[in-house]
Amino acid sequence: MPIVSSPHLHGGDSIRLTMMSVILALLPASLMAIYLFGWLAVFIITTSMATCMLAEWLCLRCMGRSTKAVWDGSAALTGLLLALTLPPTLPWWMVVLGSIFAIVLGKQVYGGLGFNLFNPALSARVILLISFPLQMTTWIVPMGDARAVVDLYDIAVAWSLFWSGPEAIGHTLDAITMASPLGHVKTEWTVGVGVTDALVHYNYSYLDAFLGFEAGSLGETSAMALLVGGIYLLARHTITWHIPFAYLATVALLAAVFNAIDAERFAPPMFHLLAGGLMLCAFFMATDPVSSPVTPLGRLFFGMGCGILTWCIRTFGGYPEGAMFAVLLMNCAVPLIDHYCRPRVYGHSVDRDAGS
Amino acid sequence: MPALLKRLGQVLGWMPAGFFGGIEVPDRKLTAHEPIRECPVPDVLILPMKQHIGEQCHPCVHIGDHVLKGQKIAATEGYMAAPVHAPVAGKVVKIEEHRIAHPSGLGLPCIFIEPDGSDGEHRYEPWADWETRDPAELRERVRECGIVGLGGAVFPTFIKLVRDQHHPINTLILNGIECEPYLTTDHRLMLEHADEIVRGLSILRYMVGARECVIAIEDNKQDAVEVMRQAVVRASLTGVRVIAMPTRYPQGSEKQLIESITGKQVPAGKLPVHIGVLCQNVATARAVYHAIEHGRALTERVVTVSGEAMPRPGNLRIPFGAPVRFVLAQCGLEDLDGVHVLHGGPMMGERLRSVDVPVVKATNGLLALHEEQIHGLNAEEQPCIHCGHCGEVCPIRLVPNLLADHCRNDAFERAEAYQLFDCIECGCCSYVCPSSIPLVHYFRYGKGQLAQIRRAETFAEESRRRSEARERRLAREREAKQARRRARKASTPAQAEDGEG
Amino acid sequence: MHVLIAVASLGGFALIAGLLLSLAQKKFRVEGDPMVEKIDAVLPQTQCGQCGYPGCKPYAEAVARGEADINHCVPGGERTMHQLADLMGVEPKPLAEEPTAPMVAFIREDDCIGCTLCIKACPVDAIVGAPKQYHTVIADYCTGCTLCVEPCPVDCIDMLLKPELIEHWAWPLPETERARIGRERKGSHARAA
Q: In what order do the strands lie in the sheet with B314-319?
């Protein structure tokens, strides 16, 4: 009989419960994605999740580890997160490739769950973005928008689009797509059109952006659905408020200050908050426990860093969207942040040495 | 400002109690309504020579001696120690090493006493007039009676009862929190012996000269709060508050309770006395009352014998030295198949590897649990996912997951820099860990290894000193030898010359 | 003329710099070899000679000179080897010999003839006794080096396992799969502190 240490009781929390709660929290966003992008969303989400779990099983098998870990929900969650960051028109094989990247290069090469430095879903998305820049920045017109030309609720049409590309349904890619608000503002600025005009041209409305009726990745468009999920996670105490708060507040603050300085050059704060992958990153990507700091102070710094980087990349960078790069860059800093942001231990004075 | 933040934290739920972190544990107080009952005297009592924190005692009786109840059988040599007394009258049958309740399964020298059924009792002079006596005299009595902290830490009580003009005691806290699941000894004592506890409180207060007294009870024991309030009124004491604290584990830990009540933290490496606080358990206060007013040494205690696998759980008054197997049999538990016995509460107590160990001063509970209730035996440790829950509940504000990594990787110096030795092993981190990592176990491993490293370093230093002293001595001897040789050489030719001349 | 000025000024600089350097050498002179002291400080000081050198200091000197390998200290075990590797800036390597459990010498007094040979052999003066009297090992000082066993003419010295004290007992690592994997990985390449 092994020597077991106290405590002998346990609160009953487990990795699987944690992962399942995050998956549950992503349910509104997933449903919204299905509403907006019809069967395409269903195909991409199921393909991605299934491939991730399969890749996980194969990796564990090859490494001689217990394959029970496939069922802990972490691979499924990675698959779901990845799917929600993908553009709806992505062909099936890129989805499969991305899922394999996420599990193999994003997670298992580091030693599996708990050891990855970067968020697996985000790293896979970046690999895809670099490898397939065109497909990864092509957004389809969502259902419910007057400009929509393809009936994505028709399973046969959606399947052809997913399996063989737009030519199979008699369209060119250009005909069924539109720019995302972030991309639109960015391209307009390069030809000398200011933010206000660009948004008017785009027919942009905050309500649509909040509800999700705009071009974008599957699960990123609807800020509302993501907020509902995020609040559930906060209430269930799966995540703490530090990272989302610091992240969103930093972006909003930077945007507000610079928008006040020059409203033509810098987009307003609400636009930033509702655009692109910010909400998804703030509540689900940056808070991925494995690749974020553990101490409260560290989490605040981490969120702030993500916010600053996101705003900078969006405003000055080459890509229209910077949230995922920001989170990945901050992931590198996590061990350092953790080491220097330890709380003041009970009974120790504040000016204690930061440790070795 | 910090007080305001704390208040805000309590309202918003970050800090439900007056201390940081902590968890809600299941209550499981199966024996809260069981009156304290007497445990019969077993055939033989086994008394370990160390039942406290500090130095071991030495037997002051011999094999074959007849001892009285309450007679001192083991005396202290060092300062930090508490003597041991015979719990019953009887004969000393042997003095040898015997297994004690310790995770190692190792033993300590023990005195075995066979009760002879007589009721001969040794008592010190009862001091009903303690208010006229010198506190130092009372303190000596507390030490002589072998009183230690009965909350579970078994720290010799007299050491804390100093009157020091540099650190006057302002607040005397009587700890009736009992935050561990299952345990109800303090609860029952407060219900049944409230007046004795309050008398003990008065004595303690007189000894240290505390102005303010607080009797702290968790609000899951409202009946005890009521009874204690009435007892304080009966004793017509002033400056004594009985307060109901929000229930939260580990509020009964001294440092956390002090933070809860005074808002102050005990500085690292210091004692509560350094911030003018004295904290004593209610059972200890009662033992002090018995020692002073009745001259009775500490020879028995109330133990909660409980757990789902215990047929007849209850609160038993047990003489020290009674074998655990005997005590369990009194509660109907004889078949130990698939049953695990915990010594202490489920959060900080240890699983007994054998029930052939004696009840000691530290025994506040004996819990029989089914195998599937012992988490450590059923769960597989999984990788840390850095959720940070452990840090959120740690009342010391450590970063348990990183600390455990350092311990697991034998990076002990790093672990020490992360304040490993401030860990109180309350178990909150392990309790909430979704990966079932036995964090406390890693901390204990780290602490043990560091202690061994320190011992080895001290020993190496001593050996080096001795080795160098020897080198110097040998060099001196060689020197002396050569000097003698030179002296002889110098004198030999002279003698030859003398001979020739 | 210009050449002369250049030569003179450069020469002057050189002279001042040289003076400063020689002064610095005098002022900051390091007595002895600090490396030997540092190495000696991490050795367990059992003076057992199991490394092939007549004591801890000689082994430290040999390691500092680069003559001896870092993995020969048997009582120091894994930890000492890692510390030496750190000090010398070399890769850790497996121990040359398996570490043994700590021992302590014990003299069977009935057989002892009081010859004092063991007293002379003990490197830490842990044996007391006078000629023609029983000798005794002071267990608290004995380093378990076994150097006294060989010289004894009547073979009355036994090496016993050091008794396990409850105060010195240390918790082992949890017996979980994770801890086991960590242990194995540590054995192969991780550094101990």
A: B36-38, B314-319, B300-306, B365-370, B339-343, B350-351
Q: Are B153 and B175 in contact (CB under 8 A)?
A: no
Enumerate the residues of chain B whose CB falls inside 8 A of the CB of residue A9: 25-26, 181, 346-347, 373, 375, 431
Interface of A with C in 4-23 (CB under 8 A): 4-5
Domain holding B354, by residue range, is 302-377
**Chain C environment of A5 (Cβ under 8 Å):** 171, 174
A134 touches chain C (CB under 8 A): no
Same-domain status, B195 and B265 = yes
B 438-477 residues with CB < 8 A to A: 438, 440-441, 444
Task: Name the residue among B383, B430, B444 with its Cβ closest to that of A7.
Answer: B430
Rounded CA-CA distance B412/B447 in Å is: 8
Kindly report, residue by residue over B62-106, the tens digit of the pLDDT: 999 999 999 999 999 889 999 999 999 999 999 999 999 998 888
Cross-chain Cβ contact B413/A356 below 8 Å: yes
Cβ contacts (< 8 Å) between C175 and chain A: which residues? Answer: 2-3
**Contact residues, chain C, for A4 at CB < 8 Å:** 174
User: Is C171 close to A2, i.e. CB distance below 8 A?
Assistant: no
From chain B, pick out residues whose CB is under 8 angstroms from the CB of A110.
Answer: none
Among residues B352, B377, B402, the one where a domain terminates is B377
Please check whether residues B20 and B163 belong to one and the same domain.
Answer: yes
In this prediction, residue B269 carries a pLDDT of 86
Q: Nearest CA to B255 among A342, A343, A348, A347?
A: A347
| Residue B336, in any domain of the structure | yes
* Shared domain check, B310 and B189: no
Q: Is the CB of C141 less than 8 angstroms away from the CB of B463?
A: yes
Q: Is the pLDDT of residue B125 over 90?
A: yes
| Dist CA B249 CA B231 (whole Å) | 27
Residue B308 sits in the same domain as residue B413: no
What architecture (CATH level 2) is domain C34-88? Orthogonal Bundle (1.10)
Average the pLDDT over B188-198 and give the result: 96
**Other CB atoms within 10 Å distance of the CB of residue B5:** 11
What are the domain boundaries of chain C? 34-88, 101-164
Using the Cβ of C169 and the Cβ atoms of chain A, whether some distance falls under 8 Å is answered with no
Q: pLDDT tens track of chain C, all 193 residues? A: 788 999 999 999 999 999 999 998 888 776 666 788 888 888 888 888 888 888 888 898 888 888 888 888 888 888 888 888 888 888 888 888 877 788 899 999 888 888 888 888 888 889 988 888 888 899 889 988 888 888 999 999 999 988 888 888 999 988 877 777 666 665 544 333 3
Which residues of chain A have a pLDDT value below 70?
Answer: 146, 350-356
Shared domain for B425 and B333, answered yes or no, is no
Residue B85 lies in a domain: no
Lowest mean pLDDT among B177-181, B200-204, B282-286, B460-464: B460-464
Q: At a CB cut-off of 8 Å and minimum separation 6, what does C138 contact? A: C126, C127, C128
Same domain, B277 and B156: yes
CB < 8 Å from B in window 69-88 of A: 72
Comparing CB atoms, the residue among B103, B265, B375 nearest residue A347 is B265
- Structural domain contains residue B105: no
Question: Of B377, B404, B431, which residue sits at a domain end?
Answer: B377
The domain tally of chain B equals: 3
In a domain, B406, yes or no: yes
pTM: 0.89
C172 CB within 8 Å of a chain A CB: yes
Structure tokens at B109: 């020298």
Nearest chain B residue to A5, by CA: B441
B155 plus B226 within the same structural domain? yes
Q: What is the pLDDT of residues C104-160, one digit of tens each?
A: 999 998 888 888 888 888 888 899 888 888 888 998 899 888 888 889 999 999 999
Q: What is the pLDDT of residue C188?
A: 45
pLDDT at C186: 57
Q: Which residue of C has its CA nearest to A5?
A: C174
CATH number of the domain encompassing residue B213: 3.40.50.11540
- CB neighbour list of residue B330: distance below 8 Å, 6 or more residues apart: B39, B40, B305, B316
**CA B191, CA A291: separation in Å to the nearest integer?**
51
Q: Are residues B398 and B420 in the same domain?
A: yes
Is the domain C101-164 a CATH 3.30.70.20 member?
A: yes
Indicate if the alpha-carbon torsion angle B330, B335, B337, B338 is positive or negative.
negative
Q: What is the DSSP letter of A91?
A: -
B405 touches chain A (CB under 8 A): no
Across-strand partners of A104? none
